[in-house]
Amino acid sequence: MQKMAELLGLRDECGEGTSGAPALAGSCLADNRLNLDVYPDGCRRFLQLFKEQQGEVVQVEFLRLSSNDCLLDTTLGSLPHLKHLKSLVLKGGHARDEFGSCQHGSLTSLPPDFGNLSCLTHLDLSFNRLSTLPSCILHLPSLSVLLVSHNSLVTLPEDFGRLSKLTFFSAMKNQLKDLPQSIGELSMLQDLDLSENALELLPEEVGNLHNCTELDLSGNRLLSIPDSLANLKSLRRLHLHSNLLVTVPASLASLPNLSRLDLQNNCLRAIPAEIQTLPFVHIRGNPLGETEPSPQADKSSTRRLKRLFLASGEGSFTVTSEGCRVVLACGIHFYFPPGAASDPLRIHFRSLPPDPQWVKLRHHDVLLSRVLELQPHGVQFQQEVQIWMPYISPQTPHQHEVVVRTFSGQSWSDLKTRVKRKRKSKKCVAHCCVLHFSWFLVVSRLVQNECKVPAEGTLLFSSVDPNIKVIFPPGVTKEPRSVKLQVLPVSAEEIQEITANAGCRASPLLYLSQDSTVDFLKPVRIQLPLPPGVTGLNLDQSRLHILHGDLEGQTWNDITSEVMLEFTHLYAVFEVTHFSWYWLWYTTKTYIGGIAKKVYERLRLYQVNFIALQRKKDPEQVLLQCVPKHKVDPVLKKLQDRYRGPEPSDMVEMFEGEQFFAAFERGISIDMDRPDCVDGRLSFIFYSHLKNMKEIYVTSPVDRKGQAVKGQVSFYRGAVPDSIPEDASRRRKGPDSLWLATLPIKLPQLKPRWDENPGPLYGFSFPPLNLGNAETGYLTQANLLSIAGRVGADWQSIGLNLGLTYQQIERIGYNNREDLNKQILDMLFSWAQQNSKDPGCVSKLITAMKESGRQDIAEEQSIACPGKERRL
C-alpha cells in the first residue's frame, strides 16, 4: 500500500516527482481504501496502479471512482479482479455543465463477471444512465446496500428478490412504473426509497417486508396502496406525500411503531377517523370535504333539484329552499343545496373587467379571469354554496397554483380551491365553497405551504423544493400562530441573462409570512440549498451572501455578518426572528443588494408586443392588442384571414396590471364619448393571460374622397401600479419615457356609400322600411344600407344570429355567389321583411351584432336612446 501511495502522490503525467506528494497520497489512499473520485483523471490513475502494482491493488476493499471519467469503460474490465472488494462507488455528478447542474455519469451497464465479487456488500451506482438494472448485480451474494438513484430505470428484474441480504435499497428519481412481486422476498430489507418515480400501483407482496422501518413512496402516481402495508409491524416512517391517493386503508393506524405518516398533497377527500386522530399524521394539501354533489350519491334529493340555464342577456335568478343548479352563459356553475336559502332569494350577478385600483395583485400573481360579482352581498347561506369558475389555463411553471380570491369589501383573501380540467371541452375550472356572496376572481399564485406553529415547535418545508425547510424549536411562541411559506425558483440562465455575469448564482427565493406582528421568542432555523454549482467542498464563504428583502422587494440588505451561518455539503442554515424575503447569493460582487433588486424587478416583467390590424372588408374597423411575446405568432395566424396590418411592434416590458393607452394620430380619430376614452386616448390594462384587445371604429376629419389617409396609432404608458419598485416608476416619468411603440394605420380613399343613393342598387329595388316602434326606436332603409356598408365576409354568422335559417343563408349565397355586396344586402333586407311587424326587431339586430363579434355596429345602433327615432 505504501508503494501505491508513492505512485499516486509522487508521479505526474511524465513520471517525475511533484511537490506536496504526501498530502496527495493521503487524501486518496488510507489503508485498504482507494478514493480516486476526487481526481478528474481517477480512472487513469487506477489503470496505472493496476498495471504496475496489481498485487497490492487487488487487496483493496473500498474503492471510489467517478463515472464521469472518460476512461470508465476501460476501468470496469479490471474491477472483477478485486476479490476482496467490499464497497464500490461508481457515482456520477462529479462534473457540472455551464449552468452548474450535475452531469450524470456515462455508466450504462456492468461486465458479466462483475457478479463474482462475492465480498461486495455496498454498491453505489447513483447519477448514471442505467435504463435496466445489470443482471450481474443479482449474483452478488453478500450485497446489503444498493443505491441506483438518479438513473433512468423503468422496471426492476422479476427475480429482484434474489438479493436476500439487502437491507437498504434506494431507487429514488428514476422512471419506475411498477415493481416485481419478488420484492416481497427481501426479508431483511429495512429502508426502501422509491420516491419520485412513476409508480401507479404496488404489489400486495410489499406487505411481506416485515423488517422494513422506513418506506418512502412520495412523488409517484399512486391512486391507492394495498391493505397489506398494515403487516409492516416494524415500520416507523411512511412517506406517501405528492401522489394521487384518493383513499388510504384505516388499518395503517394499527401499525405499532409508526411515528410519521405523511399524506400531504394527494387527492384525499376523506381520511379514516382512526388515521386523522394520529398525532404524527400530516394531511395538508388534500381536498378534504370538497366533494362535488353527485346525482348517484343521493337520488332522493338531487332528482328534485331544478336546473337553470341562463342566456347571455339575463342577470339574475331566484333560489328557493329546495335548492338548484345554475349554469350561466359564460360557463360559471352554481350548486345551491336544499336548505341553503330558507326563503326565496333573488341572486344578481355580473362580470366586471378587473380594475387595478381595487383588484390588488400580489407579487408574482397572474390574473386568470374577470371579476364575478354576486349580490346580495353579505347574505349568509345556511349551507355552503359551491361555485365553479372557468379560467384561462396558465402557462406557468410548477411553482404556481390556482386559487379563487374573494373581496370582503375591505381586503382580498384566498379560498380553499380545487381545480380540474373538463374531459370534453378541455377547459379548466376552479371550484370553491362559500357561505356568502361578494366579488370573486381566479388567480395563479406562488405555491403556498402553511402550518400552525404550536408552543412545542414544528417543521415546515416547501412542496416546490423539499430541500427548503423552516424549523421552529420548542418555546418559539406562547400562542399558536399561522405561518406561510412560498418559494420562487430562479434558474441559472435567468440570473446570467439579467446580470450579464456568469459568476453570479442564486438559490430559490424564499418568502415567509405569519399572522402575528410579534417576533418569535426564539430564533427560527432556515435551510436553503446552496446556489447551483456550489457545494460544501468548493465553497468560498467570502462570496456567499444572505440577503433580506422588504415586503415589496424594493430593498435588499446583506445580513451575512448578522447571522450565524452553518454549511453542509448541499445546504446553508441560518437563524432569524422575523419573516420576509430571503435570498442566498454567490458572487464576487460587493454591492449585491442592487443586483438582487434588479433581478427581482425583472422577474416580474413580461415581454410583450403591440399589434394594430384592420379588417380586410372594412379598414375603418381597427383591432388593437397587447400580446405576450410567446403568443404573438399564434394570435396573428388566427387573425390573418380577416385582418391585415403592419408587423408587430418591437418588444417592450410591462408589469401585470399595468395601465397603458392607445392614441390615434396624424389624421385619425375615434369617438371621444367612449367610456374607456381618457383625454382622447383609449385606456387598457395589461394582464398577461387575459385578452388585452379592443376593436374600434375609426374616422378621419380629412376629406378622403380625393386621397387615402396615412395615420398611426401610438402606445403610451399610463398609471403605474402601486407595487412597482420606486426606481422603476421614477425612470418612467417624462413624455419620452411614456412612449412605448407606434404602428401605421392607413384609411383608403372613400368610395360612394350605398346610403348616399338609396334607390335601386346592384339590381335590387328595396321597399320603404320603418321597423320598430317609438319605444325601442326605428330602423329605416338608410340605416340598413349604412350597416351593409360595414359588414363583410361575416354576413353569414350575422344572418344566423338574426334568425335566418341555414337554408336561407345557403340560398342567398348561391343566388349572389359572384357578388359579396349583393349577399349582404339580400341577407339584411330578407330579415327586415320577415320582421316588419316585430316591435322588438331593433333590439334583436343589436344583440345579433354583439353575438357576431361586431360590437362596433351594435354600439352605433345603440347611440339613440329608447324613445328616439332611428331615422338617419
TrEMBL record:
Residue ranges of every copy of the Death domain listed in the record: 780-860
* Active site (UniProt): H436, S438, H578, S580
The residues that cross the membrane are none
User: Would you say which domain of life the source belongs to?
Assistant: Eukaryota
Please list the residue ranges annotated as the ZU5 domain. Answer: 313-446, 447-588
Q: Give the matching Pfam families.
A: Death (PF00531), LRR_14 (PF23598), LRR_8 (PF13855), Peptidase_S68 (PF10461), ZU5 (PF00791)
* Protein name as annotated: P53-induced death domain protein 1
